[in-house]
Amino acid sequence: MTRRPVTSVDVARLAGVSQSAVSRAFSPEASISPAMRARVLEAAATLNYRPSRIPAIMLSGRSLMIGVIVGGLSNPFYASALEQVAVSLQASGFQVLLVHVDDALTLDAALNQLASYRVDAVITALAIGTRDTAEALSALNIPAICFNSRFVGRNISTITSNNRQSGAMAAKIMRECGVRFPVWLAGPARNAASRERRHGFFDALTDHALIDHALIDHALTSDTPSPHPILELQGNDTYESGFNAMRDLLDRNFRPDGLFCSNDLMACGAMDALRDHGGLACPKDVIVIGYDNIPQGAWHAYDLTTFDQRTEKLVDAAMDILNDAFRPGAKALSRKIVVAAALVVRRSTAKAPPQVR
Amino acid sequence: MTRRPVTSVDVARLAGVSQSAVSRAFSPEASISPAMRARVLEAAATLNYRPSRIPAIMLSGRSLMIGVIVGGLSNPFYASALEQVAVSLQASGFQVLLVHVDDALTLDAALNQLASYRVDAVITALAIGTRDTAEALSALNIPAICFNSRFVGRNISTITSNNRQSGAMAAKIMRECGVRFPVWLAGPARNAASRERRHGFFDALTDHALIDHALIDHALTSDTPSPHPILELQGNDTYESGFNAMRDLLDRNFRPDGLFCSNDLMACGAMDALRDHGGLACPKDVIVIGYDNIPQGAWHAYDLTTFDQRTEKLVDAAMDILNDAFRPGAKALSRKIVVAAALVVRRSTAKAPPQVR
DNA sequence: GATGATGTTGCATAGCTATGCAAAAACCGG
DNA sequence: CCGGTTTTTGCATAGCTATGCAACATCATC
């Protein structure tokens, strides 16, 4: 086994032709006679030769690699999103250079790596919140696409779900179900999407003033941080945080009858706490709404009403941006795209409205 | 915005030094004076220059990229495995070139892509069963590492969980719980790991002859494929397949009291069917054992006893293989490593043995 | 100050493929 | 068979960085 990989010159020598001929044999559009191509391909097969894209990267300035930055693949939503991104990129002839990131520190190093491998663009599903990271992204001077991030900047495009309207929709469901003690289970504070969902939810609920403020205020103990009439719990997007937050609430003898969670993982955790810790039945005693439409939400143990972000549409939008960005003569673009989420109604909100409309 | 990326020559010109100096400024071991380095780095910062690894790939013959082939990220086990592989590879200074594969057809194309990008090695968690794919992998002439695949070949190393012993361990638990009507819920037939688990489970159960054959035989209808005294259900590693298989069994009025599933997703599905469709309580009426230790198995709705494959050990083993393979003067290696799975006992098997020992 | 040792810098080149251009070949019509 | 047209082939080169080597500078030592 020779360590050096087979080169086009090796093939050319074996076939008794020039190196250019070998190159052309592997290029479908090239001008080459069928006889020549056959001869070359035969020699190539003998040596098990495959043309390298590395020199082509230098010449063309296009690596056809897209840097994909991920974090938290333990959330099935992100795992699935990554899968769809990978499939779409491959279908468009791109390669995926994957980078996993834990914190902002790693991100900087990751961006350096991606830059040195000359990726043509970057796609990330991280909640890029800080100005620093956005600027670092901009400085790469290549198209960047962020999912569910609010940040805009030169060369940065964002694709988000219509989080605010979805929040309002959740509020509408609460009203229709006659919810009197609504609870909002928030994701991490730095998550822009979570903040938007909260915004829409709170605004729509308080606007319509269908909440029994007095009762809720009464239920709030002094150390509750939220100044709103809707009870707010703090989570961090994991099942455990949802379970714990709800368990603590139940321990304080608060019995919600409506719960909107910033994502499905927390919703599942909260539902388990409601059932096992509070003895509350869903949807009879409490209705629950999540976000993301992860497969687990459809499992019979949960049967969770949720919002589907339509990842396929998000990903399609990303592909459109890439195509536009690479069109010859294209300028740096920073587009902002919002895709409407689709409400998926399941049993967790199947409560007959107790009051006549 | 100039389309052409900044080059080391640009930096050299601005700093008034040679191109070599720029290169050395970015190479920690290089012989260069602090003054020179500072000057270069300043110019580089001005131009936002980062050295490209592309020419270095050509010169060194090492891309430091590892091709990672995945499929079925909707299984949290694989998503998590990918995450850990990515983290470890990055920590070792490698990049991850990710390829998603649906079927064998795509795999061939994927291998060609990886080869043309000159990845230094390939890691895959696919169940590579056919001889063709293994040969294609071998033909790449680079180290290949397969998780949970039985195939061996030149340059192919395999890392598997000790599936057979785990199966035997599951049988032991069944015996201790006094199970009389055991059921095996299999993964796809082409999944080598699933076959091994079945093997260990069946052997250990029949060896000890603690199963009430007559009763089980009676329960088997004529069209049941399995010739064994243990009832065998066919799944495809998804929640739905587990749910459906169990529901169909219950519809035929069979009431199992012990269930071993080839993976946790199917176990969760089967548990939901047992509860909602058969009215059976776990662990009182039926005990359930899964495989993989996905987070969902720990959720309160399931609380599933399962086998943890110790992904961190599998991944460490993979890193060891890579390091050895890249050691100067190393020969092609095809190692076979087996890592013992760790039994995680939870409530789904918490049944007091009814019979005195 | 001469000598040698050590440290620093620049020059030149390798690495592999795609492609513009020119040369050669093939083909075609008369 | 010949000039012209089209097709095919080979030559030469670009693309960017790391590094061996030589040249040069610096420094210490006697």
Automatic annotation (TrEMBL), chains A, B:
<keyword id="KW-0238">DNA-binding</keyword>
<feature type="domain" description="HTH lacI-type">
    <location>
        <begin position="6"/>
        <end position="60"/>
    </location>
</feature>
<dbReference type="InterPro" id="IPR046335">
    <property type="entry name" value="LacI/GalR-like_sensor"/>
</dbReference>
<dbReference type="GO" id="GO:0003700">
    <property type="term" value="F:DNA-binding transcription factor activity"/>
</dbReference>
<protein>
    <submittedName>
        <fullName>LacI family DNA-binding transcriptional regulator</fullName>
    </submittedName>
</protein>
<keyword id="KW-0804">Transcription</keyword>
<keyword id="KW-0678">Repressor</keyword>
<dbReference type="Pfam" id="PF00356">
    <property type="entry name" value="LacI"/>
</dbReference>
<dbReference type="InterPro" id="IPR028082">
    <property type="entry name" value="Peripla_BP_I"/>
</dbReference>
<dbReference type="Pfam" id="PF13377">
    <property type="entry name" value="Peripla_BP_3"/>
</dbReference>
<keyword id="KW-0805">Transcription regulation</keyword>
<dbReference type="InterPro" id="IPR000843">
    <property type="entry name" value="HTH_LacI"/>
</dbReference>
<dbReference type="InterPro" id="IPR010982">
    <property type="entry name" value="Lambda_DNA-bd_dom_sf"/>
</dbReference>
<dbReference type="GO" id="GO:0000976">
    <property type="term" value="F:transcription cis-regulatory region binding"/>
</dbReference>
